[in-house]
What does this fold into?
Amino acid sequence: MGDRQPSISVLIPVYNVEQYLRRCLDSILGQSFGDFEVVCVNDASPDSSLDILKEYADHDKRIKIIDKPVNEGPMLARHTAYSQASGQYFFFCDSDDYLPTDALQALYDAAEASGADLTIGDMCLVNTNGKKIYRPRSQKCGMTSESYLRSILHWNSPSLCGTLFNRRLFDDKNYTAKTSQVFSEDRILLTEILLSKDVSIQPVPKTTYYYWINDASATRRKPSARDVQVQFSGLFQCYDYVEKHAPHLHSDNIGLIIRYLSLYLEKGVPASLLCKIDPRVESLLSFTEIKRCIGTRLAVHTTLCINLPGYRATMHGIRGIIRKLQGKD
It folds into this structure.
């Protein structure tokens, strides 16, 4: 390609994924759309991921490797990738996931036809048995910053992946990039992008991303105290950003925080630990506040999770059974 600007930069943070990396790269190099570069950031991976990247780069010059000497986490790895990418559009991809053959073509055609800042496809979860669960996020996101942000505050996926971002969203912008932010990192960047300016959106109602349910990933393991701290520091960072830049979304915003607190209490995280993370948590977990913001049902459930370990364990077990039946575990 020489010095010519590629249409799309595919941005991949790489860490400890030797088992899945070939599948990811093969799905990208096998796209029906070919005018792209692949910016792979090896985040000091301890396995053979770097060797695999070099092997692929030797055979396809569209692959660019950035080798970091110290592991800094996916948020900074992505920042490194988009800071050095040269494409007209950016496409984020996690290295244990993969793409349908026509994903980039569908998104690029829609982006060019609409001129949208974000072109958003649907996702499909894939479990270890190969079962696929369709996630139609494009049908929920609307066509404006506010509609998309509101949908995220109501549990639409905040993932960066499977979406085409016009590079102008990143020009002269200093988005947050925190070391070792392994939870809520997608949500933080997407929230800042959506509130940085009036972002136009084009939904694409077809699967453009296969999300692999990887039991070894950080988001799947039982959360440690450190995991909980990182998760909720990210969530409260987004909460504060929305409160500052879109205060009219306060009820949606506070509702998301309370639902996350309730979910983690059900998982067995002590209320005392959550209260140490942010001084606002104690009041947010009061029965009166939950009832006012969400309703009586969640207020009762959350209060019982705090005070009755047997109830909490039973309800979490039931949720786990439901997730298995749905193919999510």
Observations:
- The first strand starts at residue 8 and ends at 14.
